[in-house]
Amino acid sequence: MSQTTIPRAAVHGTASGVIFMAFFGTLWAGIGIRGMQGWEFPVLITLSLLVGVVLFISAIALIKHSRQLTNEVIKKDGDR
């Protein structure tokens, strides 16, 4: 069985991408939803904001939990 340790920099890069996409994805969804008229508007805008906030909080939690990782890449069993 092969075990690989993921370096801290890779996790931080992924979390940064999630933050970027949470912000701009929510912004883009808000712009698109604003073009709609009717009863769906408040529901959809609230839902898009909720998704953006959950993604942002998850990315921050990922960054905090990744502080325990090292920046070394360690491969065991079957190195290539």
Describe the protein.
There is one protein chain. The protein has 80 residues and is mainly alpha-helical. The protein has helices at 8-34, 40-65; strands at residues 3-4, 75-76. Helix content is 66%, strand content 5%. The longest helix has 27 residues, at 8-34. Strands 1-2 form a two-stranded antiparallel sheet. The chain contains 2 helices and 2 strands; from the N terminus they run βααβ. It is rod-shaped.
Set out the fold topology.
Layout: E1 3-4, H1 8-34, H2 40-65, E2 75-76
Antiparallel strand pairs: 1-2
What is this structure, in a nutshell?
The chain has 80 residues and is mainly alpha-helical.
The proportion of residues forming helix, as a percent range, comes to: 55-70%
Q: Which spans of ≥5 residues are poorly predicted at pLDDT below 50? A: none
Write down the Rg: 18 Å
The major β-sheet equals: 2 strands, antiparallel
Structural class: mainly alpha
User: Mean pLDDT across all residues, rounded?
Assistant: 85
State the oligomer.
single chain
SSE arrangement, N to C: EHHE
**Helix run count:** 2
Gross morphology is: rod-shaped
Residue share in β-strands: 5-15%
Spatial order of the strands in the main sheet?
1-2
Kindly state the number of beta strands.
Answer: 2
Q: What is the CA–CA distance across the termini?
A: 13 Å
